[in-house]
Amino acid sequence: MGTVKCIGILTSGGDAPGMNAAIRAVTRSAIYNGFQVKGIYRGYEGLITGEIEDFKTQNVSNIIQQGGTILKTARSKEFKTPEGRQKAFENMQKEGIDALVVIGGDGSLTGARIFGEEFNIPCIGLPGTIDNDLYGTDSTIGYDTAMNTIIECVDKIRDTATSHDRLFFVEVMGRDAGFLALNSAIASGAEAAIIPEDRTDADQLEEFINRGFRKTKKSSIVIVAESPKDGGAMHYAERVKNEYPQYDVRVTILGHIQRGGRPTAHDRILASRLGCAAIEAIMEGQRNIMVGIQNNTIVYVPFIKAIKNDKTIDRSLIRVLDELSI
Predict the structure, then answer these.
(1) 280-306 average pLDDT score
(2) Lowest-pLDDT choice from 170-179, 182-191, 192-201
């Protein structure tokens, strides 16, 4: 592979607020440093179907404040096949794209890793997911905004919970990671968080009920991380109805509300820094890495690490929540 002249950008997987800020930063930093830029629509799917457009600086004007992604996103089944990736590679060659910046979660970065290795293309990943579940970065693009959305919703739900002496289970996203649930529980003053990292321990529901909920509190809010395994908030609400029928239980599933909205300052700045760093990485000849942030410093994390390693939750946060919810 010779020197890089043209950089392709795509967003893939679930959208996250701040993706547009990242697209803008990658585009402008690339142009500033003398590269040509092409925007690829609908993720890997657009790479296969050839939905590719020349990007100039004005293509990314006025988007830093918008949620979602102007490049659209899709989950591509075809890209998981060698034939699909071959098509994608041929389109890249046809368009003269020499390097790829992929903004997305672990599935998207897995695709980038395989693609980069198969065809010897420099691929740089940016962590764009509200779940904050990528190893090697303290924060992912979209996480801060999603958390702020959750606490706004929980604040509103609490008004009803206290007015009616009700127990509310609020389900938030984060299939395999409890970062959103645990941190938004602390920020919203919730009584408990039920998270995947803790599910193997004791029965979280029983612990919470026995911890004095019945003594001191009539109303309560429990944040539950969604879970295909045990049914999330609905499952716990059913259990309370059966095992503790004296409680008036309600469930709110926040769903896709958490994904949208204008990115917070934190997410805009994070996306801007990571976007510029992606271009720097390409100029340094890096490949097959995710650009992350650790202790407020830009780091390069090999894809294999970012995807394979589990990001651990800080157990001390569980204690903070326990102590503050008495």
Answers:
(1) 97
(2) 192-201
Least confident of 23-32, 132-141, 150-159, 213-222: 213-222
Q: Which residues pair with 54 in a beta bridge?
A: 38
What is the token pair recorded at 61? Answer: 């004007």
Describe the strand order of the beta sheet including 289-294 as a list of residue ranges: 52-55, 36-40, 6-11, 99-104, 123-127, 289-294, 297-302
Which of the following is catalytic: 15, 131, 133, 198?
131
**For residue 64, which of 30, 104, 17 has the smallest C-alpha distance?**
17
Neighbours of 36 (CB within 10 A): 18
Q: Is 106 a catalytic residue?
A: no
Cα distance between residue 225 and residue 126, in whole Å? 24
Angle formed at CA 263 by CA 325 and CA 269, multiple of 5 degrees? 100
Distance CA 274, CA 183 (A): 23
